[in-house]
Structure formats: C-alpha cells, structure tokens
Amino acid sequence: MVFDQEWFTKYQPILLLFANSIPGRKTLHIDGNKSSLGKKKINKVGSNYIGWRDGKNQVLEFRTHNKYSKRLFYGLYPLWSLIHQWDTRFANNFRPTWNLGFDTLTAYPDAGSGATTVDGKVERISVDETWSTIRTTTGSNADTTSNPDGFVRIASSTTSNQWANLRRSIFTFDTSAIPDSNTISSATLSFASSGVQSDGLSATPNIAIVAATPASNNDLVIGDYLQLGTTEFATRMAYASWDNTDTNYNDFPLNASGLSNISKTGISKFGALNGQYDLDNSAPSWVSNVASVFQIYYADQTGTSADPKLVVTHSTPTAGFMIMF
Fold first, then answer.
1. b or e along 146-171 (b: 16 or more beta carbons within 10 Å of the residue's beta carbon)?
2. CA pair distance 174, 279, nearest whole angstrom
3. Angle between the 77-85 and 67-75 helix axes, to the nearest 10 degrees?
4. What is the value of pTM for the model shown?
5. What distance in Å separates the CA atoms of residue 200 and residue 124, rounded to the nearest whole number?
6. Each residue of 189-205: pLDDT tens digit?
7. Which residue in 156, 200, 204, 238 is deepest, having the highest Cβ count within 10 Å?
8. Can you say whether the dihedral through the CA atoms of 86, 89, 94, 99 is positive or negative?
9. How far apart are CA 199 and CA 161, in angstroms?
10. What pLDDT does residue 59 have?
C-alpha cells in the first residue's frame, strides 16, 4: 500500500511534520513563494492533494494525478529502498508483524475520466442480435462514471436465440512507481462486489482477466469494446466462487502472462469479461429476456476502500541489496 491514499491517511501526523519542514517542502516541491499557499502551514496532505487554512476556510489543492505520492517515492527513494528490503527480506520471512508496508505497490484507477487512469464498462446494449454479431461488432456504449454497476453481463432479448446486451470492463493503473530494475514477483487484481449477483440465464458464467488496449489510458470509447485480448492473466473465477458480500473483494492472482503485462514505466491495462461464453465464443442457452451479471464498485465510489485495485509485490536486485548493507 506504499504511497497510496490509505498510506497517506495512516501516516498523516508524520507526513504533516515532514511537509512543514524545509526538507519536506523541497521533496514535495511545495513552493510557498509561487502559489496561493504562501508560507501557510500544511494541515492536510494526500496522494494527490495538499491543504491549508485560509482564515476560517479550509483550502484543498487537488492534482489530476498522484503527484505527492510520486514526489515522495522519487525524493526518498534510497530510504524507501532500504525499508523495502527490510519488509521483503526480513519482516515477511521472520517477523510479519514488523512489516512497514513498503513491500508492495497498490494502484487504483482514477475516478471518472480525464486524469491519468480510468475504469468502466464497454458494451453492446439495447440490441437484438445473434451471439456472433453481439460479440464482434463495435460497442454501442462506454461508461466511466456509473457506480456501482455490472462489470460482466450477458442479457437475452425477447427474440429466440437473440441477445440484448454483452458487457465487458476495462481497468487501467499507473504502475510507473515500480523501479525499472525491480523484479515483480507477484500481483493480484481485485474487485469489490456491490452485493448484486444474478444468473437469470442459469448459465453459471465465470470471469476471465485479459489484456486491454483502449484508445486512451484515461478514458473509454465504444471502440474499446473490441480491444480486449485473448490470453488469460489469471485462473477464471467460477460463478459459485464469487464473494457477493457487499464491499468484499474478489481476488485474481496474476499468472506469468499477467505479471508481464504490468508496466514499470507507465500504465498497466486489464480487461474483464465472461470466459466460457464470451471469450470462448460459445453462446449460452437462451432464455427470454433475462440476464446474468456480476456487479462491482468502480473507482467513482467515495474513497478507495472498495475501488478496483492492483497490488504488486516487487523487489530490488540481490546485488543492490548486498551493496546497501
């Protein structure tokens, strides 16, 4: 969870002391002479914002990306690397309670669109089509703001063997904070259920995780419906295995292909869709005007406690560890 909003909240008192010190202001690039901040005392600091009092008013200055996370990471990299080695090589192996939370990177999509990353659904909806047509025709809707919503969905029309809706989802994560020289040992992609799961088709659909290549890292368009890959990045989750408890996470540990899809220099992009019918191109048994759906919270949910997340465990090269100690 290092340098994500959860980390900023947990260590807020220490971060405020740092942010109001000369070294802290230099590290965070808080220049009081060139902004409305002036010399005022920082009283809030988050992954993408800082705050201060202006008379009786509380002022918050937001950035479109996790600016302060990145500045802490790169400004304090030697210290981060030292603590990272402690967590990955000592605490995790001998004293887990001494873990300081520096062994992983946790990334979330940005809410809405227009920032650095995005999440949302891409689909064909309100149609009356054969299975082949609904799978292979350009999408008719892309949505980055509905929340919560079905992220994998199949719905039939009232016409025999025709389909009204096929939904897929895309998630992008900024993973550029992982040092280029580090080795990624494991990663898990997780989605929090919003408590809605139904199987009107009696198809017991499963969920597959694949690559996504949307036209933009921070927005979705209808053409992205056809921009999901076919190589699977995790074991499919069966319908019966989905934890439908509200806000509970469903985890997809990534395989070797999934790990190689994580970018250490930019944005990592993933797609979710039904496996045995959509990805495998095998039409489910038709029942008139019903749907099978998994519903999740997207990043537009307040806070990050139920947001889609990618947790990456990574380590520095052994040689670097030996030199450091």
1. ebbbbbbbbbbbeeeebbbbbbbbbb
2. 26
3. 80
4. 0.72
5. 19
6. 999 999 999 999 999 99
7. 156
8. positive
9. 17
10. 84
